[in-house]
Amino acid sequence: MLRTVAIWLLCLMLTIAAGALAIVLVNAKVYGPQQQVRDYIQALQDGEGAKALGLLRAGLPEANPAMLDGEALRQSVAGLENLQLGESVKTDATHVDVPASYTIKGHEYTTTFKLEKVGTNWLFFSRWSFVPSTLPTLQVQVVNEAEASLNGTRVALPGGKGTFAVFYPGTFEAHFTSENFAAPAVDTVVDHPDGAKQLSLATAPTPQLVEKATSQVKGFLDQCADQKVLQPAGCPFSLALDRVQNETIDWDIVKYPTVAIEPFRGNWVVKPLSGTAKLKVVEINLFTGAAVPRELEQKFDFDGQLAVDGDDVTLTPVVSY
Asked: Domains of the chain (ranges plus CATH)?
């Protein structure tokens, strides 16, 4: 009889111990603060911005929300690898820090999430929530444009600037591409909620635009060289000689200008253009009357006004006399 009671008591104690252990494990694994972080990261990976925002208990700054949902959000964490959640560290009786380490493009980062105990479930299980915060922001700037691509999403940038609310951790890549102007991709990692990050796009003319402008400059100068006169009309080069055989006048462009286009006060301008022309002509000596073949080179300068309307590019020469 006593043996039966002892066995029963032992089984009861083992059952109680197993139950207590199960409560501890469930409390740590299912209801622990790390689980909140796991759920939050998963919401980011699923592109569920509303769920992530609710879990994070974060307020929205005055910023464009284009990065907070869908494909743009999924793209922000697509490169996040090797995620490891560390043990929670108590900061006081009801608050903990949970470190999350991960890699992005081979670089190691750590984000510390702050959580607080907000109650219990079923008397045994702790209930944790993120400490309320405000989402960080990302400012994007682009030279002489009013839009760009951010994480594969086309976004408006009025006046060349825009501020976007973003989740963390995340990677954000911006670029601008068109037929005539482009800016190479730049990216940044937002790994904590404090402060603001910035991406600056250095827009520049594409080779296609420079080729179009260069072709128009060459066409203009070739038309000048086709004029069989000493002072071609509307052209940046000319020579004054006393007496020549008019039928021998022959202009040639021996050095075409290099076209360079750069931003200036919100517009695109052409840097001053310089080249060299050669004149072949037979000159008549005023004293002897002899016909003397001559070759004369002249350096010239002029300006150009650039107009770009969609795919149409016009470079208008401006010649000063």
From this structure: 27-133 (3.10.450), 137-204 (2.60.40.1120), 207-318 (no CATH)
